[in-house]
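Supplementary notes for students who missed Thursday's class. We covered one full example, reproduced here. Read the sequence, then the structure, then the short commentary at the end.
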Amino acid sequence: MHVPDGFINAPVSAATGAVAAVAVAVSLRGARRELAGAGPAGAAAAERTAPLAGLVAAFIFAVQMLNFPVAAGTSGHLLGGALAAILVGPYTGVLCVSVVLLMQGVLFADGGLTALGVNITDMAIVTTVVAYALFRGLVKVLPRKRRSITVASFIAALLSVPAAAVAFTALYALGGTADVPIGKVFTAMVGVHLLIGIGEAAITALTVGAVIAVRPDLVYGARGLTKPLELRTSPLAAPADEPAPEAAPAPV
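Structure (token representation):
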């Protein structure tokens, strides 16, 4: 779905570039709240979650380089918007995917630099917003269990990919430079990306499920839905408020 240079005309590319710049600026402010969390323990929470945002961006960068076959000789790869939004929050998720798209365009020419605004709008903003909105809606109606978070992650990721395909089709209708009918573009993009969404959903659900199994406190989408980890003492241990038994006197 990476758009090359010249595939979308200059006015639409400039407009999406402005949208992307505003979204990144807003996300920078929102990411501070997401990473710090709420309450007096915000600074301590930021120390735990800020490195996670970097790991999420690195993971998305690496997995996007791996393509899996789809249909009719086409292939797909992880977009990462749903995964980032659920793990570190929607604002931070937009930043993570935007950084990945920038690095891919600069280092590997995967997506044109003049089309960077188009790619960020489509693959960072649309996927993240759609996925997180669906995720929050599903979490509210599903049972309050860890398994529900994994199921919601799967569905949100599955639908976020064709949503991005629809958004691209709209941008192509506004400023596409290729001589391809809009109907064919819509059918090809949505049809293929419905299949790509299955791979996206599987990777997202497996990753979120693995993290929430060991460190649910690090999953932004699970805040308030999972109990914090507690250390339990053995039932044989003496209560702290009871005095320890006196030692028997030594024999004379």
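Commentary. The chain has a mean pLDDT of 83. The domain at 10-222 is CATH 1.10.1760.20 (Arp2/3 complex 21 kDa subunit ARPC3). If anything here is unclear, bring it to office hours.
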